[in-house]
Fold each of these.
Amino acid sequence: MQLADLPTPSLILDRGILARNIRTMAAALTRLNVPLRPHMKTAKSIEVARMALAGQPGGITVSTLAEAEYFFGHGIVDMLYAAGIVPQKLERVCALNAGGAQIIVITDDPEMASTIAGRANPPRTLIEIDCGEERGGVRPDSDTLLELAGRLGGSLAGVMTHAGHSYAGRGVREIARIAEAERAAATRAAARLRDAGHTIGIVSAGSSPTARHAENMAGVTEIRAGVYMFGDLFQAGIETHGADAIAATVLTSVIGRRPGMLVVDAGGLALSKDRSTEATSHDYGYGLALDIGGARTLGNAIVRKAYQEHGMIQLDPGRPIDLPVGAKLRIAPNHTCMTAAAHDRYFVVDGEQDVVAIWHRVNGW
């Protein structure tokens, strides 16, 4: 099967680029002397998980319990569910753990900490630490940190933090500074808890930008990163990876032509309406158009409008092309996590246009 034979829109994954991205992150973490707990929230695929875990000593990170159930069904036991737990979801976690899973949960809520500790066999729990993003977690110097630990009792296994605000960093030096603040917050919280007599075995941190550009991760026991596997235009724009590291693209067909424009059948549902590159040095609209082989032969051809099922590509005046209706091309996404979420499978290639595999992915919650 060739790319030209596929229905559109379809999600294309280049296995060679994926493997290179995994090796690059592994090398970065080897330099930092910290293991990886790869985050599967983007990939949601057992085939990708097996590649990401190769050579890694630990488990994975998930963002939904649907992912946890899926990966456990494929033999992965050790998982960190990296979203604040609630009572109903705690029931699902405990049921999975009773069946042999080893799912770790997180919380920053004292009442939820008491609920966790009240279980007959509570899951290992990490206290979520706010290292500057102000999305979730408690500050490392807060009184609530020690209250949470006291309520969790023996179920307390450590702390975790996430420098999501690293996405606002511009340049390697700024991201390295955010990475140090992330490390400092996690290790400071761990030290306070240890000083109070608690056993802290896990100090979990990470985002793809900070994992790539941190200068020191002393005291951190694991790094969680995920988008690095697939890459996207935004991550390239903030220097998490190079422009040649985008492994996931959307195959689309030309369905109409206008002066200086192409209409394609990949719109907001296939590409997402993420506009993250608007905040970088190069605004790619809703994605960058590539030829069917994934090369940048179309120049600066950008998806300027994204309707539900229609995309409008503004052609590069310096690269005149005349593609007929039915011609296929590919779109590099702004935010690969959002783009991949619309699709239920990957059509896998390996640097060419031959489809070498089809990998299914889990969606939902």
Amino acid sequence: MSEKKRIVVGLSGGVDSAVSAWLLKKQGHEVVGIFMKNWEDDDNDEYCSTKQDFIDAAAVADVIGIELEHVNFANDYKDRVFAEFLHEYKAGRTPNPDVLCNAEIKFKAFLDHAMRLGAEKIATGHYARVRGVLGAYQLLKGLDPNKDQSYFLHRLSQAQLSKTIFPIGEIHKTEIRKMALEIGLPNAKKKDSTGICFIGERPFREFLNKYIDSQPGPIKDDKGRVIGEHMGLSFYTLGQRQGLKIGGLKDPGAQRGGGDHEPWFVAKKDVPTKTLFVVRGHNHPWLYSNSLRAINTSWVDPMGMNELGGELGAKTRYRQADAKCSAMLDKLDEITVQFDQPQWAVTPGQSLVLYDGEVCLGGAIIESSTPI
């Protein structure tokens, strides 16, 4: 990109966005930083790092030599992201707030604000790439396979991608850390953020309990026996192993094979009866699915639907290796995916994301799966 542009960068206080801003400034662009505040409910909470993040972002902007504006999108976040987040949990599903947060805040509210500031492009510190092909835009995986974040960006539209730059998409994380140290960025050694998008890393069950009432119900095993009580289906996800509080129970029917020593995993939720089903062992058949149905499809390029006839790769969760599959559009907004190999803990509410090699085609929200 040789043309000099006015580019607004989302500075989070982390090292990835900091290096992104530095790279663009080094290329001669007019760079402006924006720090987004998107959560206010417990801003003085020990788990909310907004104040420190802003201090870090301001220090980075000072070192790089760019302006930094503080913008509050808390109302947008609560209305567009958090309300849907709670709705999904109350329905017994497990949503991915980062996906919705990118589509509604980072690449909508933030993009709109940047355009009002006269930006020609926006940039973020995501590990992904954008490629222009015949007048359209493709979303590509980041070149660092351990950090690729295209999964979280699959709901971006052509209009959003046309205005977006990912400066570090072709760089590995280890190199980003080295660059930050060499540049002298104050946050070069800051650990990566985790937890809920913009809310931070905190005891999740305790946090969710502030917004969702507990509705206890029975915990049953695969033989239908009641072996405990859960505090509410919203607080558990498929494949979960920790926090079940049934670890000491024995399974008399499995002792000969040593099955009584294997850990319990959440395998199913029956919302009408408020029943949580658990099974012993990571390889229990109830944890594997041959196919799934997903709804609310979103295509990076509407022409991506044309790729559904061939073999594709799919992720049903972040950091998962692409699973070979075939996909079929049932209706305009629904898709069925058949996997070559059974997939573990396919979870309703999570995102199914489809790939043709390095190209992210789009995705949908997992509604149900078919066990092996």
Amino acid sequence: MVHVAKEMQRLGFMIPLMIGGATTSRAHTAVKIEPNYQAGSTIYVTDASRAVGVAGSLLSNDLRDDYVARIRSEYEEVRVHHGGRKARVPTHDIGQARGNAFHGDWLDYDPPKPSFLGLQTLDRYPLEELVKFIDWSPFFHTWELAGSYPKILGDEIVGEQARALFADAQSMLGQLVAEEWLTARAVLGFFPAAREADDIHLYTDDARTQTLTTLHHLRQQAVKPPGQPNYALPDFVAPIESGKPDYIGGFAVTTGIGIEPHLDRFAAEHDDYSSIMLKALADRLAEAFAECLHQRVRREFWGYSANEHLSNEELIKEDYRGIRPAPGYPACPDHTEKAALFSILDAESRTGIRLTESFAMTPASSVSGWYFSHPAARYFNVGKIGRDQVEDYARRKGMSLNVAERWLAPTLAYDPD
């Protein structure tokens, strides 16, 4: 969005720019986007239903000037407040942050070896097997109903609506499973791995003489209380100098194959409700597939938790050993790393999932990520990072600083030149 705003400014656009969506906010618009497009007006809109009112104010000869001036004044106040708050957040330089890295007990810990190395494809995975892994709380959030499942069904305010929605979901879910509206497909793989600073080298085989690829990661730079490390995902992989053979896994799953004919049918019938319902269920099944496959990794494919027996509630709470972070999410916020993941998994030919030029996955009902097995592996948020780390990261990736800053824009603790 920042890049588009800059391009509109560079090309002399004068039209209003309205910003919205789940990943945006008034503060993000004021701090990151609006300063880059001063020729026109930049307005944050909380949701689509408010867009008409905003457009009306922008089109009105009587209201427009005062409205835009008021918005710009408000955004300037937000930037001043944000600037003061940002200045109060102390950060390490990248050298200090690496000095405060998490250190696994590599002398006394022997990493487990997966049951196979290389790739395995799972095609037409039984949909009925995935249903029991569904986390229903995000389903209700799709419909803007606040609350967690199953408590939301008894909620005094939204309970009746939630129960009706859930009944419709169960009806369609039963039909799409029975009639196989969707195809579930996955690829997973395990690779010899070793850490070097904030990178992870993957090897073609256990001889570890030929590098398959190198994964690049980012480290927390915020100053932590004593005893709390500055995490990076490579911390959970044995360093080269330890001499310990370690491994990581990768996966890509989808439950979106076959959805288009049904969406086309609903569109022809002007049945938006069913279309949204099917998309929501496909998304839930994709997440359920990721959960199901991770359980099989822990129990059999990697086998480091062979005796694990957890309820679905415990799985949702992540009460298990190991993590499956995804490129683009807080622990590894760079979406471009998805290219390496898809390459070593041969994901497109094996699953049908493609990456767009912005590294989104299509079909949309798809999930991908890495597997880490270390018992201390945990999810974390990299948070804001400094220019010194971004410069180092761009060098390691063979990427220009400008391009790295574009991809890492939401995590930057500074304003790029």
